[in-house]
Amino acid sequence: MTTFNGERFLVDQLNSLRLQTQQPEEVLIFDDKSTDKTTGLIEEYIARHQLHNWKLHRNTVNLGWRQNFMNGFMQASQDIVFPCDQDDVWALDKIETMTSVIKSNAQVELLCCRYTSFSEVDPSWRPTRLRESNRVRPVVFGSTFEGIRRPGCTFCFRRAILEDATQHWRPSFAHDSYIWLYCWLKGSLYLLDYEGVHYRRHSTNNTPPAPKSRTSATDEMALMIDYLKAADKILWRHKDRFSNAGYHRRQHVINRTLRFYSARLGVVSTGGFFNWLTFLGRYPVNVGLNRRAMIAALLVRCVVSS
Fold first, then answer.
1. Whether the Cβ atoms of residue 92 and residue 21 lie closer than 8 Å to each other
2. Up-side HSE of residue 221: CA atoms within 13 Å toward CB?
3. Please, which residues have CB within 8 angstroms of residue 254's CB and are 6 or more apart in sequence?
4. How far apart are CA 90 and CA 153, in angstroms?
5. What is the pLDDT of residues 79-88, one digit of tens each?
6. What whole-number distance in Å separates Cα of residue 30 and Cα of residue 76?
7. What's the CATH fold of domain 2-201?
8. Is 214 or 64 the better-scoring residue by pLDDT?
9. CB 271 within 8 A of CB 287
């Protein structure tokens, strides 16, 4: 678990960890220099419930949530790792259910459950469980580049992947997006039809996105290009997992998407309506993006940049 100024909702999450039907071997909490009562609350909670295998680590500098999570993963000593946010509520059988599934399926390196969202402004909310089958299915490599579809709080993964996975991780990469990407490329990413997390939406994590400037748009696309370059290196490291045709199909999807975003970055940087039209003509929407939404976004950017 990583924390930062989380005193408002933290106890609900701590309770859902403490009351798990299968107790974790260790709970590691990494606080990123909170300025509120977060660390005191955690210390008091651990002492009151005599949680001897729960450890609080205080960062000496603020690392940011990406680095904080990745540093924390590397300090885990157990075979299965569960990333945990500070403000959600877990189903009480989450650890038991997901641990059983991943240990029973050797091909699974990353397992993601389902989640349901709730709002802090709804006083009538109570945890409920939707119909579920506990069916396990892979996220297959198709004809388009696959972005993350589940937040990190739904993950459990094998710690054994970390030494190799971190070879190409960068501090700008979100921990969950990167681990999703790594396991998807390897064919070891699976989804579980089980609702394990009640995801809390509140004023801090659910603010409307601000209109994007040209600078933020270029930063976003440059980051995507970095992800794609990392994806190419990950794929090369694990090419022996695939047939020759399977490897080249994956490489084709990565390279095609990389060319698309590189060209899009160039157009955003220069702007101009006719540049956008040329781009749309040269690069039809074939990299997993919604055509109508893509064209609308590009037209808006033209207006902003002109």
1. yes
2. 19
3. 145, 228, 231, 232, 235
4. 9
5. 999 999 999 9
6. 11
7. Spore Coat Polysaccharide Biosynthesis Protein SpsA; Chain A (3.90.550)
8. 64
9. no
